[in-house]
Amino acid sequence: MGRRLSPLLPPGEAERRAVRLPGLAAPAAGRSRAAVTEASSFRRILTEQQYGTADNLAARQAIYRWAESPVDASRWALDLIAWRGGERVVDVGCGNGRYLPLARERGASLVVACDLSAGMLAGIEPFGLHRMLVQADAQSLPLNSDSVDVALAMHMLYHVPSVVTAARELRRVVRPGGTVLAMTNGRDHQAELQALAADAMSAVAGVRVERPSLIAGFTFENGEDQLAAAFTRIEAHELRRSLAVPDVAPLVAYIDSQRVPVAWLLPDVAMWPAVLEEAGRIAGARIARDGVFRARTHVGVFVCR
Protein backbone atom coordinates (compact mmCIF):
# COMPACT_ATOMS: atom_id res chain seq x y z
CA MET A 1 0.00 0.00 0.00
CA GLY A 2 1.32 3.42 -0.91
CA ARG A 3 1.95 6.30 1.46
CA ARG A 4 -1.23 8.09 2.45
CA LEU A 5 -2.11 11.13 4.51
CA SER A 6 -3.23 10.81 8.12
CA PRO A 7 -6.79 9.51 8.37
CA LEU A 8 -7.60 12.23 10.89
CA LEU A 9 -9.60 15.22 9.75
CA PRO A 10 -7.97 18.67 9.71
CA PRO A 11 -8.24 20.59 13.01
CA GLY A 12 -11.26 22.71 12.15
CA GLU A 13 -13.49 19.78 11.28
CA ALA A 14 -12.00 17.40 13.85
CA GLU A 15 -12.76 19.82 16.65
CA ARG A 16 -16.42 19.61 15.79
CA ARG A 17 -16.38 15.84 16.09
CA ALA A 18 -14.09 14.63 18.87
CA VAL A 19 -12.86 15.45 22.37
CA ARG A 20 -9.24 16.51 22.97
CA LEU A 21 -7.41 14.17 25.30
CA PRO A 22 -5.02 16.06 27.60
CA GLY A 23 -1.80 14.21 28.30
CA LEU A 24 -2.11 11.70 25.48
CA ALA A 25 -0.18 11.88 22.24
CA ALA A 26 -3.34 11.98 20.17
CA PRO A 27 -3.27 14.20 17.10
CA ALA A 28 -7.06 14.45 17.20
CA ALA A 29 -9.03 17.25 18.71
CA GLY A 30 -12.63 17.84 18.94
CA ARG A 31 -16.09 17.93 20.14
CA SER A 32 -16.55 19.84 23.39
CA ARG A 33 -17.18 18.18 26.72
CA ALA A 34 -20.51 19.99 26.82
CA ALA A 35 -21.56 18.24 23.62
CA VAL A 36 -20.73 14.87 25.13
CA THR A 37 -22.86 15.62 28.19
CA GLU A 38 -25.87 16.12 25.96
CA ALA A 39 -25.99 12.32 25.64
CA SER A 40 -28.35 10.33 27.83
CA SER A 41 -27.70 10.08 31.57
CA PHE A 42 -27.24 6.34 31.24
CA ARG A 43 -24.57 6.79 28.60
CA ARG A 44 -22.75 9.30 30.78
CA ILE A 45 -22.84 6.80 33.62
CA LEU A 46 -21.33 4.14 31.37
CA THR A 47 -18.60 6.46 30.12
CA GLU A 48 -17.66 8.17 33.37
CA GLN A 49 -18.33 5.46 35.96
CA GLN A 50 -18.78 2.00 34.45
CA TYR A 51 -15.97 2.58 31.95
CA GLY A 52 -14.15 5.41 33.70
CA THR A 53 -11.25 2.97 33.96
CA ALA A 54 -10.52 -0.41 32.38
CA ASP A 55 -11.09 -2.36 35.62
CA ASN A 56 -14.68 -3.49 35.02
CA LEU A 57 -13.98 -4.54 31.45
CA ALA A 58 -10.89 -6.46 32.57
CA ALA A 59 -12.95 -8.36 35.16
CA ARG A 60 -15.40 -9.48 32.49
CA GLN A 61 -12.65 -10.44 30.07
CA ALA A 62 -10.93 -12.49 32.78
CA ILE A 63 -13.85 -14.91 33.04
CA TYR A 64 -12.92 -16.37 29.64
CA ARG A 65 -9.82 -17.89 31.18
CA TRP A 66 -12.13 -20.80 32.00
CA ALA A 67 -13.50 -21.29 28.49
CA GLU A 68 -13.54 -24.99 27.65
CA SER A 69 -12.93 -24.36 23.95
CA PRO A 70 -9.38 -23.51 22.81
CA VAL A 71 -10.80 -20.99 20.32
CA ASP A 72 -10.00 -17.39 21.28
CA ALA A 73 -13.03 -15.33 20.25
CA SER A 74 -11.03 -12.15 19.59
CA ARG A 75 -8.58 -13.87 17.25
CA TRP A 76 -11.37 -15.86 15.62
CA ALA A 77 -13.19 -12.63 14.82
CA LEU A 78 -10.17 -10.83 13.34
CA ASP A 79 -9.31 -13.86 11.25
CA LEU A 80 -12.58 -13.40 9.36
CA ILE A 81 -10.74 -10.59 7.54
CA ALA A 82 -8.35 -11.43 4.69
CA TRP A 83 -5.36 -9.46 5.99
CA ARG A 84 -2.69 -8.53 3.43
CA GLY A 85 -0.37 -6.47 5.62
CA GLY A 86 -0.03 -2.72 5.86
CA GLU A 87 -3.69 -2.09 6.73
CA ARG A 88 -4.75 1.11 8.43
CA VAL A 89 -7.22 0.22 11.17
CA VAL A 90 -9.60 2.21 13.35
CA ASP A 91 -10.84 0.47 16.49
CA VAL A 92 -14.00 2.31 17.50
CA GLY A 93 -14.95 1.78 21.14
CA CYS A 94 -11.52 0.25 21.69
CA GLY A 95 -11.90 -0.07 25.46
CA ASN A 96 -8.67 -1.29 27.04
CA GLY A 97 -7.03 -1.92 23.67
CA ARG A 98 -7.59 -5.67 23.48
CA TYR A 99 -7.58 -5.69 19.67
CA LEU A 100 -4.65 -3.36 19.04
CA PRO A 101 -1.80 -5.90 19.41
CA LEU A 102 -3.90 -8.47 17.54
CA ALA A 103 -4.14 -6.07 14.60
CA ARG A 104 -0.37 -5.68 14.72
CA GLU A 105 0.06 -9.46 14.65
CA ARG A 106 -1.93 -9.46 11.40
CA GLY A 107 0.26 -6.84 9.74
CA ALA A 108 -1.57 -3.56 10.39
CA SER A 109 0.69 -0.55 9.89
CA LEU A 110 -1.42 1.98 11.80
CA VAL A 111 -4.20 1.80 14.36
CA VAL A 112 -6.43 4.69 15.35
CA ALA A 113 -7.87 3.75 18.75
CA CYS A 114 -11.12 5.59 19.52
CA ASP A 115 -13.19 5.54 22.68
CA LEU A 116 -15.60 7.93 24.36
CA SER A 117 -13.96 7.21 27.73
CA ALA A 118 -10.73 9.07 28.48
CA GLY A 119 -10.08 6.63 31.31
CA MET A 120 -10.10 3.69 28.92
CA LEU A 121 -7.67 5.36 26.53
CA ALA A 122 -5.36 6.40 29.35
CA GLY A 123 -4.90 2.76 30.33
CA ILE A 124 -3.82 1.49 26.90
CA GLU A 125 -0.25 0.23 26.98
CA PRO A 126 2.28 0.80 24.17
CA PHE A 127 2.57 -2.25 21.95
CA GLY A 128 5.10 -1.35 19.28
CA LEU A 129 2.64 -0.28 16.58
CA HIS A 130 2.22 3.20 15.11
CA ARG A 131 -1.00 4.33 16.71
CA MET A 132 -3.20 7.30 17.50
CA LEU A 133 -5.41 7.60 20.58
CA VAL A 134 -8.57 9.61 20.04
CA GLN A 135 -11.45 10.35 22.40
CA ALA A 136 -14.44 10.35 20.06
CA ASP A 137 -18.08 9.42 19.64
CA ALA A 138 -18.79 6.51 17.29
CA GLN A 139 -21.63 8.55 15.81
CA SER A 140 -19.28 11.35 14.72
CA LEU A 141 -15.79 10.10 14.00
CA PRO A 142 -12.97 12.64 13.47
CA LEU A 143 -11.65 10.70 10.47
CA ASN A 144 -11.51 11.47 6.79
CA SER A 145 -13.80 9.54 4.48
CA ASP A 146 -12.26 6.47 2.81
CA SER A 147 -9.20 6.79 5.07
CA VAL A 148 -8.85 3.33 6.66
CA ASP A 149 -8.86 -0.23 5.40
CA VAL A 150 -10.49 -1.86 8.42
CA ALA A 151 -12.89 -0.53 11.06
CA LEU A 152 -13.54 -2.53 14.21
CA ALA A 153 -16.65 -2.09 16.37
CA MET A 154 -16.24 -4.87 18.90
CA HIS A 155 -18.81 -5.29 21.64
CA MET A 156 -19.70 -1.62 21.68
CA LEU A 157 -22.55 -0.77 19.31
CA TYR A 158 -25.13 -1.68 21.97
CA HIS A 159 -23.87 1.33 23.95
CA VAL A 160 -24.48 3.78 21.08
CA PRO A 161 -27.76 5.76 21.02
CA SER A 162 -28.13 5.31 17.24
CA VAL A 163 -26.62 2.14 15.82
CA VAL A 164 -27.59 3.21 12.30
CA THR A 165 -25.76 6.53 12.65
CA ALA A 166 -22.65 4.77 13.94
CA ALA A 167 -22.84 2.18 11.15
CA ARG A 168 -22.98 4.92 8.53
CA GLU A 169 -19.95 6.58 10.10
CA LEU A 170 -18.05 3.29 9.99
CA ARG A 171 -18.96 2.89 6.34
CA ARG A 172 -17.89 6.47 5.60
CA VAL A 173 -14.37 6.16 6.99
CA VAL A 174 -13.58 2.79 5.36
CA ARG A 175 -12.22 2.88 1.83
CA PRO A 176 -14.03 1.09 -1.00
CA GLY A 177 -13.11 -2.58 -0.73
CA GLY A 178 -12.37 -2.27 2.99
CA THR A 179 -14.05 -4.12 5.83
CA VAL A 180 -16.07 -3.23 8.91
CA LEU A 181 -16.16 -5.85 11.65
CA ALA A 182 -18.95 -5.52 14.24
CA MET A 183 -19.01 -7.95 17.15
CA THR A 184 -21.75 -8.48 19.74
CA ASN A 185 -23.43 -11.12 21.89
CA GLY A 186 -26.50 -13.25 21.40
CA ARG A 187 -29.47 -12.71 23.69
CA ASP A 188 -28.69 -15.96 25.53
CA HIS A 189 -25.02 -15.08 26.15
CA GLN A 190 -23.96 -16.04 29.69
CA ALA A 191 -27.56 -16.58 30.74
CA GLU A 192 -26.40 -18.54 33.78
CA LEU A 193 -24.26 -15.65 35.03
CA GLN A 194 -27.08 -13.19 34.50
CA ALA A 195 -29.42 -15.51 36.41
CA LEU A 196 -26.89 -15.79 39.24
CA ALA A 197 -26.82 -12.01 39.58
CA ALA A 198 -30.61 -11.71 39.40
CA ASP A 199 -31.13 -14.47 41.98
CA ALA A 200 -28.66 -12.84 44.39
CA MET A 201 -30.25 -9.41 43.95
CA SER A 202 -33.72 -10.85 44.48
CA ALA A 203 -32.70 -12.71 47.64
CA VAL A 204 -31.21 -9.57 49.16
CA ALA A 205 -34.01 -7.24 48.03
CA GLY A 206 -36.76 -9.57 49.25
CA VAL A 207 -38.62 -9.19 45.94
CA ARG A 208 -37.93 -10.55 42.49
CA VAL A 209 -35.48 -8.32 40.62
CA GLU A 210 -35.37 -8.80 36.85
CA ARG A 211 -32.27 -7.36 35.25
CA PRO A 212 -32.80 -5.56 31.95
CA SER A 213 -30.53 -6.54 29.10
CA LEU A 214 -27.57 -4.20 28.71
CA ILE A 215 -27.08 -5.21 25.07
CA ALA A 216 -30.64 -5.23 23.73
CA GLY A 217 -29.93 -2.36 21.35
CA PHE A 218 -27.54 -4.45 19.23
CA THR A 219 -27.53 -8.23 19.53
CA PHE A 220 -26.63 -11.03 17.16
CA GLU A 221 -30.34 -11.49 16.57
CA ASN A 222 -31.16 -7.89 15.64
CA GLY A 223 -27.81 -6.49 14.55
CA GLU A 224 -27.84 -7.41 10.87
CA ASP A 225 -31.08 -5.55 10.17
CA GLN A 226 -29.62 -2.38 11.67
CA LEU A 227 -26.33 -2.66 9.81
CA ALA A 228 -28.24 -3.14 6.55
CA ALA A 229 -29.04 0.59 6.66
CA ALA A 230 -25.37 1.23 5.88
CA PHE A 231 -24.02 -1.88 4.15
CA THR A 232 -25.14 -3.96 1.19
CA ARG A 233 -22.94 -7.00 1.92
CA ILE A 234 -23.08 -8.48 5.40
CA GLU A 235 -21.84 -11.90 6.51
CA ALA A 236 -22.93 -13.18 9.93
CA HIS A 237 -20.77 -15.60 11.93
CA GLU A 238 -21.41 -16.95 15.42
CA LEU A 239 -19.35 -18.76 18.02
CA ARG A 240 -20.75 -20.73 20.95
CA ARG A 241 -18.57 -21.90 23.81
CA SER A 242 -18.97 -22.86 27.44
CA LEU A 243 -17.27 -21.75 30.63
CA ALA A 244 -16.38 -24.05 33.52
CA VAL A 245 -15.37 -21.83 36.43
CA PRO A 246 -13.95 -23.70 39.44
CA ASP A 247 -13.77 -20.78 41.89
CA VAL A 248 -16.23 -18.31 43.38
CA ALA A 249 -13.95 -15.25 43.22
CA PRO A 250 -13.98 -14.64 39.44
CA LEU A 251 -17.76 -15.10 39.34
CA VAL A 252 -18.27 -12.52 42.07
CA ALA A 253 -15.79 -10.18 40.36
CA TYR A 254 -17.74 -10.53 37.12
CA ILE A 255 -21.02 -9.61 38.82
CA ASP A 256 -19.36 -6.72 40.66
CA SER A 257 -18.10 -5.37 37.33
CA GLN A 258 -21.73 -4.59 36.45
CA ARG A 259 -22.56 -2.79 39.68
CA VAL A 260 -22.88 0.66 38.10
CA PRO A 261 -25.61 -0.15 35.55
CA VAL A 262 -27.62 -2.60 37.70
CA ALA A 263 -27.32 -1.71 41.41
CA TRP A 264 -29.99 0.96 41.01
CA LEU A 265 -32.54 -1.86 40.63
CA LEU A 266 -32.19 -2.59 44.34
CA PRO A 267 -34.34 -0.80 46.94
CA ASP A 268 -31.05 0.63 48.26
CA VAL A 269 -27.71 0.58 46.43
CA ALA A 270 -26.06 0.05 49.82
CA MET A 271 -27.32 -3.54 49.53
CA TRP A 272 -24.74 -4.29 46.83
CA PRO A 273 -22.09 -5.86 49.13
CA ALA A 274 -24.77 -8.21 50.41
CA VAL A 275 -25.65 -9.09 46.80
CA LEU A 276 -22.04 -10.09 46.16
CA GLU A 277 -21.99 -12.19 49.32
CA GLU A 278 -25.20 -13.94 48.30
CA ALA A 279 -23.90 -14.52 44.76
CA GLY A 280 -20.79 -16.11 46.24
CA ARG A 281 -22.93 -18.37 48.42
CA ILE A 282 -25.10 -19.51 45.49
CA ALA A 283 -22.11 -20.05 43.21
CA GLY A 284 -20.20 -21.85 45.94
CA ALA A 285 -23.07 -24.29 46.44
CA ARG A 286 -23.19 -24.94 42.70
CA ILE A 287 -19.43 -25.57 42.57
CA ALA A 288 -19.60 -27.87 45.61
CA ARG A 289 -22.31 -29.88 43.86
CA ASP A 290 -20.98 -29.94 40.28
CA GLY A 291 -17.26 -29.21 40.65
CA VAL A 292 -17.55 -26.08 38.49
CA PHE A 293 -19.99 -23.29 37.69
CA ARG A 294 -21.03 -23.67 34.06
CA ALA A 295 -22.17 -20.91 31.73
CA ARG A 296 -22.75 -20.78 27.98
CA THR A 297 -21.39 -18.03 25.77
CA HIS A 298 -22.76 -16.87 22.43
CA VAL A 299 -20.99 -14.21 20.39
CA GLY A 300 -21.51 -13.10 16.83
CA VAL A 301 -19.60 -11.10 14.25
CA PHE A 302 -20.89 -9.21 11.24
CA VAL A 303 -18.41 -8.75 8.39
CA CYS A 304 -19.65 -5.71 6.48
CA ARG A 305 -18.55 -4.40 3.11
Main beta-sheet strand count, sense and barrel state: 8 strands, mixed
Examine the secondary-structure arrangement and name the CATH architecture.
Answer: 3-Layer(aba) Sandwich
Tell me the helix content.
Answer: 25-40%
- The count of helical stretches stands at 13
Distance between the termini: 19 Å
How much of the residues is beta strand, in percent? 15-25%
What's the name of the CATH homologous superfamily? Vaccinia Virus protein VP39
* Cross-sheet strand order for the largest sheet: 1-4-3-2-5-6-8-7
SSE pattern, N- to C-terminal? HEHHHHEHEHEEHEHHEHHHE
User: What overall form do the CA principal axes indicate?
Assistant: elongated
Total of domains = 1
CATH topology: Rossmann fold
Written account of the structure:
- With about 300 residues, the chain is α/β, with parallel strands linked by helices.
- It has one domain (about 15-305): Rossmann fold (3-Layer(aba) Sandwich), CATH 3.40.50.
- The protein is built from 13 helices and 8 strands.
- It has an 8-stranded mixed beta sheet with strand order 1-4-3-2-5-6-8-7.
- Helix 8 links the parallel strand 5 and strand 6 (about 175-185).
- It is elongated and about 55 Å long.
- The protein starts with 10 loop residues before the first helix and ends with a strand.
Short note summarizing the structure:
The chain is an alpha/beta fold and 305 residues long.
